[in-house]
Specification:
single chain, alpha+beta, Flavocytochrome B2, Chain A, domain 1, 2 domains, 7-stranded mixed sheet, 6-stranded mixed sheet, 20 strands, about 45% helix, transmembrane, membrane, chitin synthase activity, glycosyltransferase
């Protein structure tokens, strides 16, 4: 059936489709859970209570006409207004005869003429608003009491409760007469279900409000702290830049003050069987080439012909240091324009804090006004950096360093005091230096270089968001180190200008986010503890991502109810904070009025961001294609031939053997 109706031809495709449907069912359950907490909890566990609260009575819910009096609900043939009608009923009180010599209630109705249905209760808000008096948890309505001797008592306790101590100063018969004549019901109480519902509601409210406000203030604090960071560098930290190119037209080199950058090109031509994008196995494959290279030279592992050639070229290009001395790797997309001072600021952060193992700068949009699609992305880019990444930086756990502009520590060398050392430093006789490979560590390189993914989860990790997966691996394995955001380092890039391309891009990003959060939420060693931990924050972000479509739908329901006069204030205040605090962040960080306009465009298009794009992404969990983001005219519809990899075709050389060969070649040339 899957093959026929879902058009999945291979066993792998059918298995991925099954896993996708399972995930969609789990997402639906999460959305129903959110709906239950938001709307239906009180219906199921609280409103099942049988007590009748006066101000919640609706005559249309009863088959007969009703009248409320003497703390009871009566059925009647006549129609009466929905009010407390205790004063209409005849009373006989011995206390009134003793105190006043007559009855103080002038009612004429008799209870025997009405059909008693149930007791009636009053809640405290109604009691206070209407000036009722509570004695021993019973409610009395003094509205029709004209007895002068009770006027002071009524004035003292109107809208409140009178205790036995308070009543001692009044005549006992007067109080008993008042109670006999104006008894209207009892104070409402909450069932155990209602109490449980309130506890869940307020706990959820406190947690969500706490997260919203904490996220905002910590992001603001981090932004303020980073602005004070002094920028200075040693000037001798080796940094290597990797630019993965496919269709961006990146030929040429960087030139500054007459000095040209040293460039090495690795041209991946592919095998004879590759006819589609020959040699292009994605950005991750290009990153693995360099990461694996540094891992091999740091661990003195065997090197392939390609590794040997890269090593030889680097030795030839840099005569002041060796390939082993490179400490930092900057990764930039070919269509990304980096600000001239960005690298200096990034390297400065690395040199000042030996805990930093990776960071990213702010990516701004260069084609803001090209189309409505580019316009709606401007504020989303801004808030994802200045709110989300600033907040995560406080914990040292930015969950995604964007592959278009990020920088990693290949290794770190420190002395016994934690001071960073590099190739230009001289080792003192009593010093102990420790080299720790980070990006070049096999515990990162090996899982990142896996080519064959067997499950849908692995496919989404490896083939859709390589930047996020690399960040995940670093956080899982080096949880005591930091991944941060540096707003001062800026770059710009062009974003998708049509909806189809945006939809394809966000499909990859959303699905990659979900599957990487599944990985991180299981890591219990991240910064913090309990509700104040990165693991707790990731769990809530994961739940929030999965329930985005339901959340935006419920937001619409709440707004409609507010317009028709039934506002739910807690969710509305929460929505105001979510949308209003970013405006405050704009005012306190960028000081650019234009971003308020971008915020308005973002709010108008919230259904696209929170409903249409996530729903499309969820239903395409089993789509592992890159989409239209890097599509070129030369891309054909043909498929590559499948073959088996022949490992014997690759020769390996020990690093020491390679170094000896290079030394011999150098000596031969000098002779």
């Amino acid at each position: 059936m899957i093959r026929i109706f879902a058009r999945k031809e291979t066993p792998e495709q059918r298995q991925a489709w099954r896993e996708k449907v399972t995930l969609c069912m789990l997402i639906s359950l999460a959305c129903f859970f959110l709906a239950g907490i938001t709307f239906f909890m009180n219906i199921f566990i609280c409103n099942t209570s049988t007590i009748l609260i006066f101000n919640k009575l609706k005559p249309e819910n009863f088959e007969d006409n009703i009248i409320v009096a003497n703390g009871k609900l009566y059925g009647t043939n006549k129609e009466y207004p929905l009010e407390n009608s205790t004063h209409l009923f005849r009373k006989r009180s011995e206390a009134c005869k003793r105190a006043f010599g007559h009855q103080i209630s002038s009612g004429t109705f008799s209870e025997s003429n009405f059909e008693e249905m149930d007791k009636v209760y009053f809640d405290w808000s109604y009691i206070q608003d209407n000036g009722f008096i509570v004695i021993d948890n019973k409610v009395y309505d003094p509205s029709y009491c004209d007895e002068e001797d009770l006027s002071q008592f009524i004035q003292d306790f109107k809208g409140s409760a009178a205790s036995k101590t308070h009543l001692e100063k009044y005549d006992k018969d007067c109080i008993e007469c008042f109670k006999d004549s104006f008894y209207s019901g009892e104070v409402s109480f909450k069932s155990n279900g209602c109490i449980l519902g309130d506890i869940v509601l307020w706990m959820g409210t406190v947690i969500i409000f706490g997260l919203i406000l904490t996220r905002f203030f910590l992001a603001l604090f981090y932004a303020w702290h980073e602005k004070k960071r002094a920028v200075s560098i040693r000037g001798n930290t080796p940094v290597i830049l990797q630019v993965a190119c496919y269709s961006e037209g990146a030929a040429g080199w960087y030139e500054h003050n007459g000095k040209k950058s040293r460039i090495m090109v690795v041209n991946k031509v592919g095998n004879p069987g590759e006819v589609v994008k020959a040699g292009n196995r994605g950005k991750r494959d290009s990153q693995v080439i360099l990461m694996s290279f540094f891992s091999k030279i740091l661990y003195s592992d065997r090197m392939s012909d390609l590794d040997c050639e890269i090593y030889r070229k680097m030795k030839r290009m840099f005569n002041k240091f060796s390939p082993e001395d490179f400490e930092i790797l900057l990764m930039v997309d070919a269509d990304t324009i980096v600000e001239p001072d960005a690298v200096v600021k990034m390297v400065s952060a690395f040199e000042k804090d030996n805990k930093i193992m990776g960071l990213c700068g702010e990516t701004q949009i260069s084609n803001k006004c090209e189309s409505w699609v580019t316009a709606l992305q401007v504020f989303e880019y801004y808030i994802s950096h200045h709110l989300a990444k600033n907040f995560e930086s406080v914990f040292g756990g930015v969950t995604c360093l964007p592959g278009c502009f990020c920088i990693y520590r290949i290794k770190i060398v420190t002395d016994q005091h934690g001071n960073i050392k590099n190739h230009s430093d001289k080792k003192i006789y009593d010093e102990t230096w420790t080299c720790v490979p980070i990006l070049a560590n096999p515990i990162v390189v090996n899982p990142y270089s896996v080519f064959e993914a067997k499950t849908l989860h692995e496919q989404n990790l490896l083939h859709l968001g390589e930047d996020r997966y690399l960040t995940t691996l670093l956080m899982k394995n080096f949880y005591k180190r930091k991944l941060i955001f540096l707003a001062a380092a800026k770059c710009s890039t062009c974003v998708p200008n049509d909806y189809k391309t945006l939809q394809s891009q966000r499909r990859r990003w959303i699905n990659s986010t979900i599957h990487n959060m599944f990985e991180l939420v299981l890591v219990d060693k991240l910064c913090g503890t309990g509700c104040f931990s990165m693991q707790f924050i990731i769990f809530f972000e994961l739940f929030g991502t999965l329930t985005l479509p339901a959340a935006i739908f419920f937001t619409g329901v709440l707004l409609v109810k507010a317009f028709i006069g039934e506002p739910a204030w807690i969710p509305l205040v929460m929505l105001a904070l979510i949308l209003g605090l970013p405006a405050v962040l704009i005012a306190l960080t960028t000081f650019q009025l234009q971003y308020f306009g971008w915020l308005l465009i973002y709010i108008i298009n919230l259904p696209i961001w929170n409903f249409f794009l996530p729903v499309y992404a969820f239903w395409h969990f089993d789509d592992f294609s890159w989409g239209d983001t890097r599509k070129t005219e030369s891309d054909s519809s043909k498929k590559d031939e499948k073959g088996e990899f022949d490992a014997t075709s690759i020769t390996f050389v020990e690093l020491e053997e390679l170094k000896n060969d290079i030394l011999k070649e150098f000596e031969a040339k000098t002779k």
